[in-house]
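[audit] Reproducing an earlier prediction to check determinism. Same input, same settings, fresh worker. If the tokens differ from the archived copy the diff job will pick it up downstream; this log only records the rerun itself.
[audit] input (326 residues):
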Amino acid sequence: MSERRSPTAVLLKLLGFAVLALALLAMAFRAPDRSLESLVARWAPPPSEFIELALPGGSTQLVHLRDQGPRSERPPLVLLHGTAASLHTWEGWVRQLSREHRVISVDLPGFGLTGPSASGDYRDAAYVDFVAALLDRLKLGPVVIGGNSLGGQIAWQFAARWPGRVRGLVLVDASGLVFQSESVPPGFQVARSPWLQTLAGSFLPRPLVQRSVQSVFGDPSRVSAALVDRYFELTLREGNRQALIQRLAQLEPGRHADELDRLRTPTLILWGEQDRLIPPALAEEFKRRIAGSQLTVFPGLGHVPQEEDPESTVRPVLAFLNSLKP
């Protein structure tokens, strides 16, 4: 006769399997912070450089940037990435633009190799102050500022505060207005969840990062393993995960929206038709509120069109830059 096990014994055995499974998952997805030094060789080869930047209030921020292209009478182009991204998101554009234009791309505080803000302030005004300090440090006159998502939000707010320092704006799926997302990247959902935040500092499943990147592409099949590697490893930069949590907690949706109506800076608005994070309807609102602005919508592309298809999305940028007087 077969041995019959009591319900208690079966339950204990199942519990043991569950504990073992959880332990294996914890081992598989454990992802401790990475030091800046351990990431530099792969993600900051030349022309990357690091500078010490003095910020208002007396703090000093280490900043990762790239300054490429010829110096000329044309205004330099400064490129600002979005939340949880890095200056690498502009690589496809920079290859084209830097043939004729000086292009400066930078990792914003809280992201990439710049790492967490020295002051812990991730409000919009702090980012605008950061850009002003950066332009001062690089001794730049009037510039063209381009930004994607958060970077676009910082760009138009900077232009509203310092109109004399901005010759043109390039807004790529820009944030800063109140909107309802169709889809939020899983990584953002984790960073906003109080009971998951405690785990986020020690565990980071690579599939979670992959799904997050795929969610902002119009065509998820364009997301390569190398691209996921970059987002994954730079997220592990010491302090970046906590910085994302702080940034999302300090969001001020729509607070500065009235500043758009005062903008008179030549503006190019670019948008992915398949943006599920910031709806394409907002592109029309930006166009309506920024006097004289131009709008181009890219069929099939998502929230980061400059990364998903740099060759087609850079063309209107080149035309826009060439239309600006030196």
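[audit] rerun output stored. Observation attached for the diff report: The chain has one domain: 36-323.
[audit] end
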